[in-house]
Automatic annotation (TrEMBL):
GO terms for cellular component: peroxisome. It comes from Pararge aegeria aegeria. Its main location: other. Keywords: FAD, Fatty acid metabolism, Flavoprotein, Lipid metabolism, Oxidoreductase, Peroxisome. The gene is jg18692. InterPro entries: ACOX_C_alpha1, Acyl-CoA_ox_N, Acyl-CoA_Oxase/DH_mid-dom_sf, Acyl-CoA_oxidase, Acyl-CoA_oxidase_C, AcylCo_DH-like_C, AcylCoA_DH/ox_N_sf, AcylCoA_DH/oxidase_NM_dom_sf. This is Acyl-coenzyme A oxidase. It is found in: Peroxisome.
């Protein structure tokens, strides 16, 4: 594989690590990309970005003011957007406008985030999923060609989670064949939508639909909010930016208020329901929640997004750990590379394994999603509840795990990991938002729990369950599993833990209702357990999927690649078994001796993976221009880069800052 040649000599420790690697890195890269041809395609697209000015910021983004950051991000988004529409989509195919390759390439332009991300990320998918064919023909080409720029305005100041509680109204007027959009209260301000504040001229709006005096619940509308020529907000629209936040600092998350703002009837997105000219409401959807489709789609894509973010953090932390030496182990011996510490390996190797686990699971989930879409096209919505349950828990757990692993990567880099130039704080704050947006962690696990409780009751009644919960059929009446110290045994024990926890939830709810509580209160009192049960189910799905997909995908691999991929998957199983020893003790016959043995094997596995650590992150094939890290570059020039970055600080532009003469000196002289 052609590695982009570093401009400088590679740090000797890092160079030695690469010599130790005993598997074919390119083969693993191909596996991650989904095939050799996909790797070639990705590199071609990355070349387009890198040859067209990506990564060329004279002043680092973080040293700019809020306005400058935004303006710089818009400038780069336009360069990038133009490349996407003119060159990149030709390679991926226009139907793959959300390809992970485009997402990954965007990082070569933006350390933080593009204000246009939600245009491609949510506006376009909503048009695809929610429009009639006529509406698609009207809006989609303009959106893909970026003649219009959109946002997704659902969340309000008062409600994010509870969509049914949204307050924005869309009231139909049959005389004028128009909807009147209105924000009746302060809490009905649209709030948070990415790109809405300053960038977008259109947005999709979720509002309560009123026609013929009746509310029909939330529906989606496409709304032009700014003049296309002057970009001024249209009369009846108040729009702006919500202010600085933890991350997302180069984007313009927005607020929006409607004052009796009129839109044509045709701007209601009518694939699943419509309002006739005379105001009659007609619902065509076979499932009540199809207007939530974009959210399901994004939850599905976020699992792969998490894999990408963990792989970035792991690459930075592992390369840095090979370069960094710290603490004398024995007198007069060189200080070891910090990567030699098993505690460091414990923090980091699980990140590599998790990136693979999420990547393989995301491909599997994507295929499941496509199969459900195909069913729905044929009018069958029976598979949707399982997809909703699955995408909800996988979104929740993958974002939450990614966040904690990325934080471990930062810890693993000590003080230098705290520097923005390491890129770890950017990755962390970007991923921190994913745990909340597109459905909060707890809320989504409770959605999965609803499905699991029903499934458990069906299993109890002897009904055959669908694939992802079929383990409940086998384990419904099992009390404690006989511990079996094999890989399949560990996976089975996680299924038994999940079944046990779900069963316990069902029992708690029944006990509470039997003692006089109504069902809603009994459910509410059980929610702490329900969240735990849904998480356990998700762990069982992740472990099982990673293990089986890894075996499938490496069937034709070389022996060395097979071995190292197998080691990573075993590490993942063991890591989680050791994390959940309390549950194992509760739901299986595992003994202290078995757990000690598992711990010993885990520690041996860390040592076995150690020589391949750098090779494994090299296999993620993240070019320096995408990684943006002083600590994680391919050449390992960590200290030189930290100094170069320090010199870029605007505070070093002059030897004495004016504040000395203005404030400090008068203080020193007692003249303040
Ligand atoms: C051009 C240059 C480009 C440059 C850039 C280049 C970039 C390159 C490319 C770009 C890459 C992009 C990367 C991604 C970026 C993404 C960023 C995203 C940002 C963030 C966006 C957001 O953040 S956007 C708002 C999301 N906001 C939520 O996420 C609210 C959660 N809140 C709920 O989602 C509902 O509120 C909640 C709880 C379900 C209750 O809903 P509810 O009250 O209506 O329903 P109930 O609870 O009563 O449930 C009643 C029954 O409905 C069932 N059910 C519920 N939902 C269902 C469903 N969806 N499908 C099926 N069934 C469903 C349920 O299971 C029950 O079933 P059953 O009755 O059988 O038990
Ligand atoms: C960076 C970022 C970008 C965003 N972009 C967009 C966008 O483009 N478009 C858009 O429409 N929205 C966007 N959002 C909004 C996002 O979707 C919401 O913030 C998210 O859905 C959570 O809703 P909330 O803020 O109302 O939190 P809340 O629901 O108020 O959550 C607060 C707490 O209450 C708990 N809670 C709430 N309900 C329940 C319940 N039923 N049971 C138990 N606990 C509960 C939660 O677990 C949480 O701990 C964005 C948010 C962020 C942070």
């Amino acid at each position: 594989m052609k590695i982009n040649k570093p401009k400088h000599d590679v740090n000797p420790d890092l160079a030695k690590e690469r010599l130790k690697c005993n598997f074919n890195i390119e083969e693993v890269t191909n596996i991650i990309d989904g095939g050799k041809d996909k790797t070639v395609q990705r590199k071609k697209i990355e070349d387009i970005a890198l040859n067209n000015g990506a990564s060329l910021d004279e002043v680092p983004e973080e040293c700019l003011s809020i306005k400058e950051r935004y303006e710089n991000a818009v400038r780069k988004s336009c360069v990038y957007g133009n490349l996407v529409r003119n060159e990149m989509l030709e390679i991926t195919g226009i139907e793959n406008f959300e390809s992970p390759v485009l997402r990954r390439t965007a990082d070569a332009f933006f350390k933080d985030i593009s204000p246009f991300m939600l245009h491609l990320g949510m506006f376009v998918p909503t048009l695809i999923g929610q429009c009639t064919p006529e509406q698609t023909a009207e809006w989609l080409p303009k959106a893909l060609d970026m003649q219009i720029i959109g946002a997704y305005a659902q969340t309000e100041l008062g409600h994010g989670t509870f969509i049914r509680g949204l307050e924005t109204t869309a009231t139909y007027n049959p005389e004028k064949e128009e909807f009147v959009l209105h924000s009746p209260t302060i809490t009905s301000y649209k709030w948070w939508a990415g790109g809405l504040g300053k960038t977008a001229n259109h947005c999709v709006v979720m509002a309560q639909l009123y026609t013929q005096g009746k509310c029909h619940g939330t529906h989606l509308f496409i709304v032009k909010i700014r003049d296309l020529d002057t970009h001024m907000p249209l009369p009846g629209i108040t729009v702006g930016e919500i202010g600085p936040r933890m991350g997302f600092s180069s984007a313009d998350n927005g607020f929006l208020r409607f004052d009796h703002f009129r839109i044509p009837r045709e701007n209601m997105l009518m694939k699943h329901a419509k309002v006739e000219k005379d105001g009659v409401y007609v619902k065509s959807a076979k499932h009540g929640k199809l207007t939530y489709g974009t959210m399901v789609f994004i939850r599905v894509t976020l699992v792969s997004e998490m894999s990408f973010n963990i792989s970035k953090a792991a690459t930075i932390a592992i390369r840095y750990s090979a370069v960094r030496r710290q603490t004398e182990l024995r007198p007069n011996e060189p200080e070891p590379q910090i990567l030699d510490y098993p505690t460091q390996q414990h923090k980091l190797f699980i990140c590599i394994a998790t990136a693979h686990a999420f990547q393989l699971t995301s491909c599997w989930l994507w295929n499941t999603f496509q199969a459900v879409l195909a069913d729905m096209k044929k009018g069958n919505v029976d598979t949707l509840p399982e997809l909703h349950a699955l995408s909800s828990c996988l979104k929740a757990v993958s974002t939450s795990d990614a966040l904690s692993h990325i934080e471990q990567c930062r810890f693993a880099c000590g003080g230098h990991g705290y520097m923005l130039s390491s890129n770890l704080p950017f990755i962390y704050s970007f991923v921190a938002a994913t745990r909340t947006y597109e459905g909060d962690y707890t809320v989504l696990l409770l959605q999965t729990a609803r499905f699991l409780v029903k499934a458990s009751e069906q299993a109890e009644a002897g009904k055959k369950l669908t694939q992802t919960v079929s383990y409940l059929n086998r384990t419904a009446n099992a009390d404690r599993l006989n511990w079996d110290n094999t890989h399949e045994g560990i996976i089975k024990s996680f299924q038994v833990i999940a079944a046990g926890k779900i069963g316990q939830c069902v029992k708690s709810i029944r006990d509470r209702t039997a003692s006089g509580m109504d069902y809603e209160d009994a459910w509410l009192m059980t929610t702490v357990q329900l969240v735990g049960a849904a998480e356990a189910h998700c762990r069982a799905v992740l472990l099982n999927t990673y293990w089986s997909e890894m075996r499938k995908i490496t069937e034709a691999s070389s022996a060395d690649v097979k071995k190292v991929m197998h080691q990573l998957a075993v590490l993942y199983l063991m890591y989680w078994a050791l994390e959940k020893t309390g549950d194992l003790l509760k739901y299986s016959s595992v003994s202290k001796k078995d757990l000690d043995e598992l711990q010993r094997r885990y520690e041996e596995l860390l040592a076995e993976l150690r020589p391949n650590a750098v090779g494994l992150v090299d296999a993620f094939d993240l070019r320096d221009e995408i990684l943006h890290s002083s600590l994680g570059s391919y050449d390992g020039r960590v200290y030189e880069r930290l100094i170069e970055e320090a010199h870029k600080s605007p505070l070093n532009d002059e030897p004495v800052n004016q504040s000395f003469h203005k404030y400090t000196k008068p203080l020193m002289l007692g003249k303040l």
